[in-house]
Design brief:
Elements lengths: L6 H8 L5 E12 L4 E2 L1 H7 L6 E13 L2 E2 L4 E7 L13 E7 L4 H15 L6 E7 L1 E6 L6 E6 L2 E6 L12 E2 L8 E13 L8 E3 L2 E11 L1
Parallel strand pairs: 6-7
Antiparallel strand pairs: 1-3, 1-14, 2-11, 3-4, 3-5, 5-6, 8-9, 9-10, 10-12, 12-13, 12-14
Amino acid sequence: MKRWLALVAVVLFAAAPVQAAGLTGHYLESRTCDVWTGPCFANAETSLGGKHAVLAWKVQEGTLDNVRLDGLGVVAVIETSDTLGLEQTGPGKVLLIVDNKANTAQKAALVRLAKQQGGNLIGNVIAVESAPVELTVCHCEGNGCYVLKAGAAKVETRCLDAHSKVCGNESAFYPPLAKGVNARPALTAEHSFTSNVFNETWKETDRRGSYVGSFELR
């Protein structure tokens, strides 16, 4: 993997208005806390977990600022001071992984896509890397089976079922972090990040901490 764009240029380019023409694709999100859970379990994790997340967008078709992005993807790996979904007491850090199949204009457009979808959460980008971004949607009964491989980030999900319930009062306690997504909770079979960009790595299994679905910009 290698960095391809100066961070100052990324910030300046991303600040301009985004114009999308029928941009649609798949979305995946995984956090280091339960998102489909009961209030008692969520409260127990507050300030202890959920400070890391991987967000992924894989474009099926469409353009952003007249740049065609069909089949390309971008991933945001996030570290925050507090549990995601709650008010933050300090600045977060973001690594963006852009599809290595993209040309220069497409890579810049993918950065803008992630920033537009993630809002303030993706404000402090400390690094941009280029790597293969593979987001596979597997056919299963509950449509919750996704596999993401992007550089040092890997996520695999499967459908929630009756065995996923613990207290019987579960719901989507934390909504998705990205804008304009149509996503449903899923079980995280694996969620890992092995780079030292944050001076920290993580690996989790069997957590009710993911969202899978789609995104759309018109």
